[in-house]
Amino acid sequence: MTKKFELGEKHTSENLFRVVALRDFSNVKKGDNGGWVASDENLSQKGNCWISGNAIVSGNARVSGNAIVSGNARVSGNAIVSGNARVFDNARVFGDAEVFGDARVFDNAEVFGDARVFGDAEVFGDARVFGDAIVYKNASVFGDARVSKGKHREQVKIFTMSKDTITIDGEYLNISVESRTVKDWLENVKEIAKKYDYSDEQIEEYHSMIKFIAKTYFKIDC
Length: 222
Description:
Layout: E1 5-10, E2 17-21, E3 33-37, E4 50-51, E5 56-57, E6 62-63, E7 68-69, E8 74-75, E9 80-81, E10 86-87, E11 92-93, E12 98-99, E13 104-105, E14 110-111, E15 116-117, E16 122-123, E17 128-129, E18 134-135, E19 140-141, E20 146-147, E21 151-152, E22 157-160, E23 165-169, E24 172-175, E25 178-181, H1 182-195, H2 200-217
């Protein structure tokens, strides 16, 4: 197999090296300077994967397949970015996290811990996906959302509230450890919230948001 890159100049302040293309592939031309790596183990010689801009891949992290890490993104620890995934802007992927498939992680988003993001999922804004969370299919995690557990799939929307988050997951709303239909929440939100020691102000806040979600996303009059 003909190598597609070599290590070039050393970073002025970190123990990193610039990757330099040795041949044409995808949109990369022979001689192009890429991003930074700690060693040639951080980027696969196979496929069209690449690191560009000021992006850094370090530690035992690995970029493979046709994945692209660009901008000011950082991938570190034991993280894996593979498939057709894209990590860019100021995004961070670290720990034992994996981003693969056609997933996108961008803006100031972070994916870490044992989290998995794949399929056509997107994580962006200032969102954080971590712990044992799995975000996949067409899910979108954005804004200031914090997702640390559970499986989140088609058309997920996450709303950050004062005590917890509200997640739209298909036909269900997930709040704390409860997963119920929107109609069930509308009818029982006060009783459910009291089980988890929500204050009266928080109950009213969540009730208002549930009604907004019911009208906006489920076309339910309430």
